[in-house]
Design goal:
With about 575 residues, the protein is mainly beta. Helix content is about 5%, strand content about 40%. Strands 1, 3, 4, 5, 6, 7, 10, 15, 16, 17 and 19 form an 11-stranded mixed beta sheet that branches. Strands 20, 21, 22, 23, 34, 35, 36, 37 and 38 form a 9-stranded mixed beta sheet that branches. The chain is elongated. The termini are far apart. The N terminus is likely disordered.
């Protein structure tokens, strides 16, 4: 029934990268592999060049209870020739949502509607549901997008719309697609298309919409069935609706053999995001020695720590067993460190706990490139160690995913483009980007992890960096990336006082094999975090602290494909603090 295929890192892949860093990468990419391959059931359209599809919201309807807390609300009350009721919905225990149509004891015809209003609303993207529709006349199933903005007048469908991805008032192969705008009164306007689905062995079909910048494109089972611009592309966020409707469009409900039902296997939403080279995929074409496409460019001096020793085990921050209680060791006023060791799987975890209320503690992230250009020359690449020293910091970790990445940028400073929002000292360095949620500090000193809207006023944001996945939300683990890599993350305590930095080493078979984002969330939660965000990982993963003798690594990076080598990252985040 389900089609999500999780990518797992093979140990021999990690070993190959450890022993032969110049080979093409065997370890899979974080979030860069096309989801066309990962989710064949959705048959995603070919993305534009340089972009890929990323799953940003979904409900697989597993388990025994519908998620009315985070995802859905049921609508109750009269609707057309029947009544919408929460009683129409249940999970069937086999990974499907059952939407039932029935006649109650009072003789009323009952069906239902679920909507994501106030829980998930989105502008543009790829929306898909896999469904097995009703068998009887008198009612029809629908998968659609809606908001009250549909009633806005003027500017055509740009100012609000109802988008009917599918309606099924017929029992044959016909499917109705439609877009409505300008309300439902005398000024109502719409465009409609009727398509046909092909026969399915199990009765299930996928119904999809690509709501793009230039057009609405509708699909059935991955086959494009209609394209329209209506009267302009909607720029208002819409929420998802799954409903059944009782009415004469589908025939006379009194002649139907009830109960009847529609099964929904899943609902998923994807976004187009830039393919982020290396930092997520560790493209060893960049790691390899040799021609990187640039001529007469001097090779930068390689940053490499001494790895003849296993790894510097600082006396004041020893490794402890991962299953034991975390032993926090103060290293600055308001900053403590801890390191954990797991044997199954083999992992080395480094943690920092930062008291944002402690005297002398302040956060810093990379500022603008001297010849700044948005979306092109945003920051100057540097190692996280250099970032710590340049800003006279106590501790630091790497932050955003970034482009470009090749054999030159990996090893040299120069202009970088950050993926997602970056704000440094109140100045926007990189704008908001879909698919990259944000850690931020307000000017009042309140930390947050959330999605920042593209049109949101950022004047009250003092500092921000972005990652690719919220992994811990209100104390619940919501991560879903099961590929294993070196990882970097950031968390916030429930009382909003403490920040947590985490790195988990990877791609080193006898040291640390790498972690899923689920594990990152688990260790952040164990440390005390209530909210958590996954930052750039792979070879970018770095954690460093200052000492009287200079900077010291708290993890073992593989920035150039070799243990102890450092990469020039797009940006980093760190903290100043007073010495003990």
């Amino acid at each position: 029934m389900k089609h999500i295929q999780k990518i797992c890192c093979l140990f021999w892949g990690a070993l190959a990268l450890f022993l032969y860093p110049s080979l093409s990468p065997i370890i899979p990419a974080q979030e860069t592999v096309s989801l066309q391959k990962n989710l064949p059931g959705d048959l995603l359209p070919e993305p534009p060049e340089g972009m890929t599809w990323k799953l940003v919201w979904n409900d697989e309807f597993d388990g025994t209870e519908i998620d009315y807390v985070n995802k859905w609300e049921a609508v109750n009350g009269p609707r057309r020739d029947g009544f919408w009721s929460k009683e129409a919905f249940a999970l069937d225990g086999n990974g499907c949502l059952r939407m039932k149509t029935f006649q109650n004891d009072e003789g009323q015809f009952v069906d239902g509607c679920l909507r994501s209003r106030g829980k998930y609303e989105k502008v543009k993207g790829f929306f898909v549901a896999r469904m097995k529709t009703q068998k009887e006349v008198g009612h029809w199933s629908a998968f659609w997008l809606y908001n009250d903005s549909e009633g806005n007048r003027g500017e055509g469908s740009k100012n609000g719309a109802e988008i009917d991805i599918m309606e099924k008032p017929w029992l044959d192969a016909r499917i109705n697609h439609a877009i409505h705008w300008d309300g439902y009164g005398p000024e109502h306007k719409s465009v409609v298309s009727v398509s046909e689905e092909e026969e399915s062995a199990d009765g299930f079909h996928t119904y999809s919409l690509w709501w793009g910048d230039d057009a609405y494109r509708f699909y059935i089972d991955g086959r494009q069935t209609w394209e329209t611009t209506a009267d302009g592309i909607c720029e208002k966020p819409l929420y998802l609706k799954i409903s059944d409707e009782i009415g004469n469009w589908a025939g006379d409900i009194k002649t139907a053999k009830l109960p009847d039902e529609t099964l929904i296997d899943y609902v998923r939403v994807y976004d187009l995001v830039p393919i982020v080279p290396e930092s997520n995929a560790d493209d060893d074409a960049a790691d390899a020695e040799g021609d990187d496409g640039r001529e007469n460019v001097p090779e930068a001096e390689e940053h490499l720590v001494d790895v003849n020793q296993e790894l510097p085990r600082y006396i004041e921050v020893p490794y402890t067993a991962a299953e034991e209680k975390i032993e926090w060791i103060p290293i600055f006023e308001g900053i403590s460190a801890a390191r954990l060791e797991s044997t199954d799987p083999r992992l080395r975890i480094s943690l920092l706990k930062i008291d944002t209320k402690a005297k002398g503690v302040s956060l810093v992230t990379t500022g603008r490139y001297p010849e700044y250009t948005e979306n092109e020359n945003e920051t100057n690449r540097e190692t996280t160690v250099d970032f710590l020293q340049r800003n006279d910091l106590a501790v630091a970790i790497n932050a955003n995913f970034y482009t470009p990445f090749d054999g030159f940028t990996l090893k040299n400073p120069g202009p970088s483009n950050e993926c997602g929002l970056v704000v440094s000292d109140g100045v926007v360095v990189s704008p908001v980007q879909d698919g990259f949620p944000t850690f931020l500090m307000t000017k009042e000193g309140t930390p947050e992890i959330r999605v920042v809207a593209a049109d949101e006023n950022t004047d009250n944001i003092y500092l921000a960096v972005s990652g690719n996945e919220i992994i811990l939300k209100d104390g619940e683990i919501v991560a879903n990336d099961l590929s294993t890599h070196p990882r970097t993350g950031i968390g916030i305590s429930e009382n909003l006082r403490y920040l947590y930095f985490i790195t988990i080493d990877g791609r080193q078979l006898n040291w640390s094999v790498g972690a899923t984002t689920v594990l990152v969330a688990e260790y952040l939660k164990k440390a005390g975090a209530y909210q958590g965000l996954n930052l750039d990982g792979g070879g970018s993963t770095t954690m460093v602290r200052a000492t009287g003798d200079g900077p010291e690594l708290l993890n073992l990076p593989v920035g150039l494909g070799r243990p102890g080598s450092l990469r020039h990252n797009g940006n980093s985040i760190g903290a100043r603090a007073n010495p003990l």
